[in-house]
Specification:
Elements (H helix, E strand, L loop, with lengths): L7 H12 L3 H14 L4 E7 L5 E6 L39 H7 L2 E7 L6 E7 L2 E8 L4 E7 L6 H6 L3 H18 L4 E6 L2 E5 L6 H8 L2 H5 L1 E3 L3 E3 L2 E8 L11 E5 L2 E3 L2 H10 L12 E6 L5 E2 L10 E2 L2 H19 L17 H10 L7 H5 L13 E2 L16 E6 L3 E6 L2 E6 H19 L4 E11 L2 H9 L1 H7 L2 E4 L4 E8 L7 H18 L4 H13 L9 H12 L14 E5 H7 L4
Helix pairs in contact: 1-3, 2-5, 5-6, 5-13, 8-9, 12-16, 12-17, 13-15, 15-16
The structure holds adenosine-5'-diphosphate and magnesium ion.
């Protein structure tokens, strides 16, 4: 095909796709506009999860009549005049793309009255084209109604999830802005249900208790406010006893803009040092303030990714604030923020436990030796090679267990060298194959609870649960909805019977949610995978010789022993030859 400039309506849709992914992204852009317009009262209303209708009403400064049409033109903004302004952005918007993008993929009605004008303007656009414009009486402010989102982009429509799920994402967005702007009033309604309502009192903790719940808010501790190297850090973090199974509860704001930043997430987690159990993450709402010229917010059309001029400075400021807060508020005996681990985490206790269990092979002297550092080039670690694909069963050689290191890996000897086995991944594989087989036979063992447990879930998880009720039941989670986000839990899968039922369910739903983003896959299998992940022995758990031998025996019986259900290797093989070469014997 010859090269051609795309017709404007196609180019529009492509550009819109970058900004508008789902109803929650529309809400995000509209709420940002209301905040930029100085609104103190922002009401959000959606129906059918936002697919039918999204309405955002504010009491901000409004748009003058002669600029109303311009607001919908691409790259039309009142927030930026010169390229230099890009270096000191104080507003949430600046790219002038949101309204154009939203209008390109929906039917938009806007009524707005500028604070200095006597009457308002009503304008209606279909697929980006103005259909009508007229004067109308109203009080100052802006009401935007977005209907039939993606009606002209079937590809996007197909990817929208159930209304409850989309509403939960909208809830997450509005909740975040309510936290960032506690002095403004927010409300969110889905159909005739009010999902969120804040008072605008300025109290972040109060907003926290409305966005999450009272118990959660009660377990948050404040970050010491103050400036560190030009970076002002404030907000709340959870007591080490309150944790979640993933990072989605780390909420960051930079100059009041909600951002994603793995580096800062890591700074928070490192601030907890060793206070968090393996695989658990804190909740946090962290506000960063710094001169706008220290950050570039113009990295991505959704403006949630940023680049710092000096990332390390920001990292240190956050980590120190978290450490200080924990050492002042968290009641943890023996917490020493500055101690660096010199051996495997928790090694001292494990060694003690082993000695008292009568394991003479764990002597005093050996243990105080520093770990030798391997020469980087001498031995290359490779996942154990997989046999040719034609072979159905990937048999393992017979393995002799030598021991465990780091309470995470099993060291074993095979006829052809040394094997390092990841105990968590291996156990996941074993449980997965067992569960899949039980499912085929239609008899997954279930553990009934003595009394049904009533559980209220956060909206995202409640939506995930409602969507997966049948599959959850087949697996052993007998869950019955009753009321808003509330469920009765009657049983759990037997392989999770050792776990606290509420937490097991929450963790499984959370993992299910985060797995969904990565791959579109059959829900039931995804569920089985996350249940196994939850039930499997964790890294950091000391195992007895007998336990390790049993695990290796079961792994040998698996059809695909060399990978975990998520496709990662369960073992690394170092061949006898590699060892010999590494020691200069060849
Ligand atoms: P941006 O926010 O990047 O400037 P938008 O497409 O979101 O771009 O909005 C375009 C312009 O429309 C804004 O610059 C602003 O002047 C005006 N505008 C949009 N929404 C509102 C609102 N709720 N109140 C007042 N002005 C608004
Ligand atoms: Mg905007």
């Amino acid at each position: 095909m010859p090269i051609r400039i795309l017709p404007p309506e196609i180019a529009e849709k492509i550009a819109a796709g970058e900004v508008v992914e789902r109803p929650a992204s529309v809400v995000k852009e509209l709420v940002e506009n209301s905040l930029d317009a100085g609104a103190t009262d922002i009401r959000v209303e959606i129906s059918e999860g936002g697919r039918r209708l999204i309405r955002v009403a504010d009491n901000g400064h409004g748009i003058p009549e002669d600029e109303v049409e311009l607001a919908f033109a691409r790259h039309a903004t009142s927030k930026l005049v010169t390229a230099d302004d890009l270096q000191r952005i104080r507003t949430l918007g600046f790219r002038g793309e949101a309204l154009a993008s939203i209008a390109a993929v929906s039917i938009v009605t806007m009524v707005t009255r500028h604070k200095d004008e006597a009457a308002g303007t009503a304008i209606r656009l279909e697929d980006g084209v103005v259909i009508s414009k007229e004067r109308r009486g109203m009080s100052p402010g802006t009401i935007i109604t977005v209907e039939h989102l993606f009606h002209n982009v079937p590809a996007r429509l197909k990817f929208l999830r159930q209304p409850a799920t989309e509403a939960a994402h909208v809830h997450a967005i509005v909740g975040r802005y309510a936290l960032a702007f506690p002095e403004r009033r927010f409300s969110l309604a889905h159909g005739d249900r009010v999902l969120l309502q804040t008072t605008g009192s300025g109290d972040v903790l109060e907003v926290l208790s409305r966005v999450y719940d009272h118990e959660t808010a009660a377990q948050m501790i404040p970050l010491p406010s103050g400036e560190r190297q030009g970076v002002r850090v404030s907000g709340f973090i959870s007591q080490p006893s309150l944790t979640r199974s993933n990072r989605t509860y780390l909420t960051l704001f930079l100059n009041r803009r909600w951002i994603h930043d793995n580096g800062i997430n890591q700074a928070i987690i490192q601030g907890y040092h060793t206070l968090l159990p393996q695989g658990r993450y804190p909740l946090a709402v962290v506000f960063l303030e710094m001169p706008p010229e220290w950050v570039d917010v113009n990295v991505h059309p959704t403006k949630t990714e940023v680049r710092f001029a000096d990332g390390r400075r920001v990292f240190r400021a956050v980590m120190e604030a978290v450490r200080q807060a924990l050492s002042e508020h968290a009641s943890v005996p023996g917490f020493e923020p500055r101690a660096e681990p010199t051996s495997w985490p928790g090694w001292a206790e494990r060694r003690q436990a082993l000695i008292s269990a009568g394991r003479p092979d764990v002597g005093e002297d050996q243990m105080s030796l520093p770990l030798p550092r391997p020469e980087p080039s001498s031995v290359t670690l490779r996942p154990a090679p997989s046999p040719p694909p034609a072979q159905k069963r990937e048999a393992l050689p017979l393995l002799r267990v030598v021991g465990q290191i780091g309470a995470s890996y099993i060291v074993a000897e095979g006829p052809d060298g040394m094997y390092l086995i990841d105990q968590h991944a291996a156990h996941e594989r074993i449980l997965y194959e067992q569960l899949m087989e039980q499912r085929e036979r239609g008899e997954i063992p279930v553990q009934a609870l003595l009394e049904p447990l009533s559980i209220t879930l956060p909206p995202v998880l409640a939506a995930a649960a409602s969507e997966a009720l049948d599959d959850l039941r087949k697996l052993g989670f007998d869950l019955e909805p009753f009321g808003q986000n509330a469920f009765l839990l009657r049983s759990v899968p037997a392989i999770l019977s050792e776990h606290e039922p509420r937490r097991a369910l929450e963790d499984v739903l959370e993992s299910l949610e985060s797995e969904r983003h990565s791959v579109a896959q059959a829900q039931e299998e995804a569920l089985i995978r996350v249940v196994c992940k939850r039930a499997a022995i964790k890294a950091g758990q000391a195992l007895s010789m007998a336990e390790m031998q049993e695990m290796i025996r079961q792994l040998e019986a698996c059809r695909s022993p060399r990978t975990c259900p998520h496709g990662r290797p369960t073992m690394i093989h170092i061949s006898a030859e590699q060892l010999a070469r590494g020691f200069g014997r060849r």
